[in-house]
Give the backbone structure.
Amino acid sequence: CHQPKGNMVPILLLLSSIPYSTQSTTGSTVRWYVASGRASDNVEFAKTSPKALTGFYGCCHDLLVSKNGSISTADNLSTTVSLHRHALDSLGRVLTYHSTFSVEAEAILSGVAKSIAPNLAKIAKDSGVDGLLCDYEPDFNYTVEHAQKYADFLSAVRKELNGLDLELGMDVAGWGILDKFDIYADVADFFTSMSPTYNAGNLTRNRDFVGEMTRTLGSDKVKVGLGSSPATGYEKNCANMPTYNYTESNLTPFLDYLKTNAQVSGVDIWKCDIDNYGKTADFFLDAIVQFKEESPGSPCSGHRCDTLACPCGCECGTDADPGLCYVPAHVSDECE
């Protein structure tokens, strides 16, 4: 779960404008959820591991829509955005920065939130972000009506943001109203998963979830969230979060699956130590760099695949184990 932290103040202050510049969307993206109040630490991370990221999600939350429609923002947001986006200026790179935001359920259900979409977009533009990422996680009223009202709100925000050359993302998950993908298919520019993919405890379920996302939302809009792994000796820094179970042996194969089989070109990293910064495991960073830098290969290139047993697709295997059947990202007519 993403919970709001930090001091929030009414957005009655005029934010200084930062010129908006786009970053190429070609290739793979790797964005990290970071504590936006720790800009200096985040900039240092970017400088020491520049190949391991393309951008940041400012967490949690940079913006908040209250039940009466008023909007609050984190202190000095425009300065925070600029520091993160220009962390790698010395390398000639501009990183992306998307502010995470949330909204109180009463505003969604009453329709008030939808009416303030222009205000939200203006704040985003003035602060210099590349877009917004909505993190709305209601723990009640899991109805289609609720999901539709949320979708209506997102559609309104997306329209306003796109008109300012900004994009909207949505956090999705395998529970509540957050997995009703058929309702949300056209409401955002990208969708990034939280549970179940943050955790490697059940990779079969993760693959099934990603498959459902790509089939309904489109692989070009899907980004898969992963919970990070701490370096040895830094486990206590992740005490506030679950153990996400990505290891040296299971992370690279899962990333290979995402890029080659699911045709997903973006992963988003939820820092297990976001509440208490420590150090990320080297194997985790290395695998992320490989995902970002390498082009997708052909499925099962150089390996044997049991296509007779799995006519609609299969995992890459070995001579001893031909692999497991899976539901491909793009289902052919004969496999529907």
Q: What stands out?
A: Strands lie at 8-10, 29-35, 55-65, 71-74, 96-103, 131-134, 167-172, 190-193, 222-227, 266-270. Confidence is low (pLDDT under 50) at residues 3-26, 299-304, 327-336.
